[in-house]
Amino acid sequence: MKPDKYSAVWVSHSSISDYLKCPRSYFLRNVYKDPKTGHKRTIMTPPLALGQAVHEVIESLATLPVEERLKISLVKRLDPVWLKVTGKKGGFRNYTIESEYRQRAVQMLMNLQEDPGPLLKKAIKIKSDMGLPHYWLSEKEGIILCGKIDWLSYDEETDSVHIIDFKTGKHEEKEDSLQLPIYLLLAENTQTKHITGAAYWYLNRDEGIVEKKLPDAKESYKKVLDIAKEIKKARQKNELACPHGGCNSCRPYERILKGEGEFVGTSDTRQDIYILQD
After folding, report:
1. Considering only CA atoms, which of 110, 134, 191, 202 is closest in space to residue 164?
2. Within a 10 A sphere around the Cβ of 63, how many other Cβ atoms?
3. Alpha carbon distance 142, 205 (integer Å)
4. pLDDT digits over 219-251, tens only?
5. C-alpha–C-alpha distance, residues 78 and 83, integer Å
6. Which stretch of DSSP H or E encloses residue 188?
7. What is the average per-residue pLDDT within 243-260?
8. How far apart are CA 86 and CA 83, in angstroms?
9. Order of strands, edge to edge, in the sheet holding 40-43?
10. How many angstroms separate the CA atoms of 183 and 278, rounded?
């Protein structure tokens, strides 16, 4: 009999990244729940709002027939999405800052409209019974790996898929990032097509699509399982303190605990959203 999904330790690229930066940050973002609402907490900032809005617009295209995807301007598709992050909901302190970020989102989508590339190929949409694609990384350890891959471009000739991750930030993904290893494991275990490649698509930079070498599946599994087991052990022993006595990763969430943040809403994933004043 399989172990219970609800008692398993769930890990993802974002939660693992949190833990590697600071165990206390991991705890406050991924474990702690507000006793009043029963929800986890997240802090919204303008860059996060920008990324969330652009990703939602692009994600909405995957379920449409190829010939329908660009019939409506991507900029027009942004309008209702941006309403979810406008004003304080997006961490914007004033209209000028919001306008600046919205224009950046518009420019990214205009660039995609003009040069859609893989967006005009068929795509695979991973289905999930719990909303988020996931699988048992280790039933023995009671660990589930979860995450959402931005785009799986489908090639009919080879009956295979290509992993694409959209980047809206200014910084390049680090070579030692676990993002591609995690996406490879998710793609291999949540859908049936062979994976033939992967790429980062930098929407805010001139180079656009940057092809990446697929990581080795066995090495990826070992790396991810090792850190997942470390997280599970730290949770069991309650060893989730900041190694620096306070750092840039955990300090903002400590401020929320102290009541310094402003509650601005609840996300679609039932997280309480806060903003902080500098």
Report:
1. 202
2. 10
3. 40
4. 999 999 999 999 999 999 999 999 999 999 999
5. 9
6. helix 179-190
7. 96
8. 5
9. 40-43, 271-275, 262-266
10. 35
Ordered alpha helix ranges (H), 208-271: 217-236, 251-257
Written as six digits, the tokens of 16 are 């693992």
Q: Say what the pLDDT of residue 131 is.
A: 75
Given a cut of 70, whether residue 117 has pLDDT beyond it is yes
pLDDT at 171: 82
By C-alpha distance, which of 53, 66, 62 is closest to 106? 53
Q: pLDDT tens digits, residue range 162-218?
A: 999 999 988 888 888 999 999 999 999 999 999 999 999 999 887 789 999 999 999
Q: Give the whole-angstrom CA distance, residue 116 versus residue 105.
A: 15
Q: Which residue has the tokens 């310094």?
A: 260
pLDDT (0 to 100) of residue 1: 62
Counting every residue, how long is the chain?
Answer: 278
| Whole-number Å distance between alpha carbons of 230 and 68 | 46
Phi and psi at residue 152, to the nearest 5°: -115, 100
Q: What is the pLDDT of residue 188?
A: 96
Query: In the prediction, which pLDDT does 128 show?
Result: 79
Please check whether residue 195 is in contact with residue 184, taking contact to mean a CB–CB distance below 8 angstroms: yes
What is the DSSP track for 161-206? EEEEEEE-SSSPPPTT-SHHHHHHHHHHHHS-SEEEEEEEEETTST
Are 179 and 172 in contact by the 8 Å Cβ rule? The answer is no
Q: Using an 8 Å Cβ cutoff, are 57 and 70 in contact?
A: no
Residue carrying structure tokens 């609402």: 37
DSSP 205: S
Contact 161, 152 (CB under 8 A): yes
Please give the order of strands across the beta sheet that includes 208-212: 151-155, 160-167, 194-202, 208-212
Both structure tokens of 15: 């939660």
